[in-house]
Amino acid sequence: MTKAQAEEMIGLPIKTTMPYMGSNFALANNLNQPITVKYPTDTASIILKGAAQEIVNLARRMRQVT
Amino acid sequence: MVGKTILIVDENPASRVFLANHLRAKQFKILEAPTGKEGLIVAWRHETDLVLFDPALTDIPDKEFIYKLRNDPRTMKARLIALSSDPSPARRETCLGAGVDDYLVKSSQAIPALEQILTRVFETETPEAVPDQESGKSGLLVVFLSAKGGTGTSSLCANLALNIQQSQPDGRVVVADLVLPIGSIGPIVGQEGTLNLVTVTDLPAGETNAGYFHKNLPRPEYWQYQVLTGSPDPEHGNSIKGERINQVVSMLCSAYDFVILDIGRSLSRISLPLIQKADLIVLIVSTDQSTVKLTKTVCDYLQTQGVNSQKIYAILNRAVGLEA
User: Fold this and answer.
1) Residues 6+ away with beta carbon under 8 Å from B290
2) What is the pLDDT of residues B7-54, one digit of tens each?
């Protein structure tokens, strides 16, 4: 499914998409290592960093609103 | 800042003496060690406030040195600053990934940068480093949820929590695994042990205060934050005192700046109140139609339970691929 199809079906915007990592995702898990440590230059690592910052910012904003 | 104890671990005597003299002049109490192993002994014996070290230690790998400091109760709260001759991103990532708070490169800018960090760390530190419920403080509560298993929720939870910790180096982050009947954060971060969600809910309420969590929750190698692992097996999971979970989470919120709960697909009468009071709900979706359909059902249900849809941060996780 595309992101747009998933968004339409759920009725919510999808804020972040994690890219396909092949077997690397499972390998990092199996080694008990963070993705950003095992694959620091992978797109997934960059996306994780950005998403973490967005999560912090949005959580803070929601705390202020409620 | 006056009177704080700083341990300098550096095999280069000239570098060590220079730093020691400079920091003594700033009224710090200085301890020195010429090797990594001696550094560990001094750090544990004196319970130093900060360890400033060159990671190029010949008697112990840098990661092991950091891991030992981070996982010993005498030094787990100490500030760790690497002052390295190696400017490579790989070394920096290794040290930060292993748990140092700051990584500086030896250069003309290193001393001003170090002074800025010391000022930030020690002058903003309150006498009561362990907040409690009376302080009224409540850390941000972020829950990770999915409608279906196999979406990589726990893995994303563990990895995003690390990035949250790294983006907030002065903040305390804890990850708690509420997935029942078997938790999966422990196996992902490589943490086993008898202290877990089930054993914590079994303790008297008065014992599980902020200080208890700060002191006892492990900080696994690489992951930088503290972890309350989940139930180790279904038998334990079924014996959990569900009525205590809300109280445990409230205490975590009073003890940490960020409380990250992995709920996985365990949407239940136990987890619903936590979702309702969360500041943010990270909803993990995978690309198969059945998961998306179930996600819609969960979202609709949450709305009927008064959950503000603006609080939902949806992530499409393609990292795990499609189920066969």
Assistant:
1) B148
2) 999 999 999 999 999 999 888 899 999 999 999 999 999 888 899 999
Which residue out of B280, B291, B312 would a mutagenesis test of the A interface target, given it has the greatest number of A Cβ atoms within 10 Å? Answer: B280
Give the A-side interface with B, CB within 8 Å. 1, 3, 5-6, 9-22, 25-26, 29, 32-37, 40, 44, 48-49, 51-56, 58-60, 62-63, 65-66
Q: B223 vs A34: CB contact, 8 Å cut-off? A: yes
pLDDT one-digit tens code per residue, B201-240 = 988 877 888 889 998 999 998 999 999 999 999 988 888 8
CA-based nearest residue in chain B for residue A16: B315
Residue B2 has what pLDDT? 63
Inter-residue contact B283 to A13 (CB < 8 Å): no
Structure tokens at B79: 């500030």
Instruction: Give the predicted TM-score (pTM) of the model.
Output: 0.67
Q: Which amino acid is at B165?
A: Q
How many C-alpha atoms does B29 have within 13 Å on its Cβ side?
Answer: 9
Strands B258-264 vs B173-177: parallel, antiparallel or unpaired: parallel
Tens of pLDDT along B95-136?
877 778 888 999 888 888 888 888 877 775 544 333 444 445
